[in-house]
Amino acid sequence: MLRQWSPINEFYFVVNDKYKGVNADSEMAIQKIKSTYNLKEAAILTAKDIENMVFKLEDDQILSITGSIPDPKTKNLDYTVLNEVIEHIMLLPLNAKSNYKITLPNWEDKIKFNNLSSETAGLLNSGYTHIQSLEEYLSNNGNFLADALRDQINDIYCQERNKNHGDDLFWAIVERLSPKSQSMYQITVIIIMSKYFETCDIFEEPLEKNDFANKTHKFFGVSTWLRKLYPK
């Protein structure tokens, strides 16, 4: 390579990791190459990296490379993304030796604000303890998948919140997201829901006291101004 292309300032090794990530030895090897040949940059490009690069291109550039332009809305309407994530998490074994530290979110106020029962809170807490498997999968995939999953779950929540409330809303979402009405699917879905419950993509965020006071103040301020402008 050096005989054919010289000088070489950057080196990228493309690996089809099938969205599973590469091991630490590979990362160390690429950094050794960078150091040995005094390169400005060297890195491993995985499927996630290539996908992210493609979706930063203009439509005509994507078309010339892939022959078609992927439509995020089309992928979002079917359940391909969701089912892909569910299947991955379901097949993972429990890892008793994991060094991943889990700290449960302090979401008691949000639980109460959305009229969720202690039983539902327990399910969300239990789901969150397995969040590592979801986070690792999303980190090994491109931003497209993570965004599509978030948007799909939020879209279902927005549809169901007009018809259900509290625990009924929670279980309506579980039912919509689960490929089958079986516990192994529902448990996996609740793991996913726990992530988006924390990020407030599903269920309402309770107003802080200061926010409520500010909104109340603005409301009465506008009301006073209107009465002065249009007296009876």
Instruction: Write out the strand line-up for the largest beta sheet, numbering strands in chain order.
Output: 1-2
* Whole-angstrom Rg: 24 Å
Extract low-pLDDT stretches: 72-78, 215-220
Give the % helix. 55-70%
- Give helix and strand order, one letter per element, not per position: EHEHHHHHHHHHHH
| Whole-number mean pLDDT | 81
Domain count: the total is 2
Note the beta-strand portion: under 5%
Strand tally is 2
Biggest sheet overview: 2 strands, parallel
By secondary-structure content and strand pairing, the structural class works out as: mainly alpha
Q: Give the N-terminus to C-terminus distance in angstroms.
A: 86 Å
Estimate the global geometry from the Cα principal axes: elongated
| Count of DSSP H/I helices | 12
Report what the structure shows.
This protein is mostly helical. The chain folds into two domains: 10-66, no CATH class; 72-198, no CATH class. It is 60% helix and 4% strand. The protein contains twelve helices and two strands. It has helices at 24-36, 47-54, 59-66, 72-77, 80-90, 108-113, 118-128, 131-140, 143-160, 166-177, 183-198, 209-229, and strands at 10-14, 41-45. It has a two-stranded parallel sheet with strand order 1-2. α9 (143-160) packs across α10. The N and C termini lie far apart (86 Å).
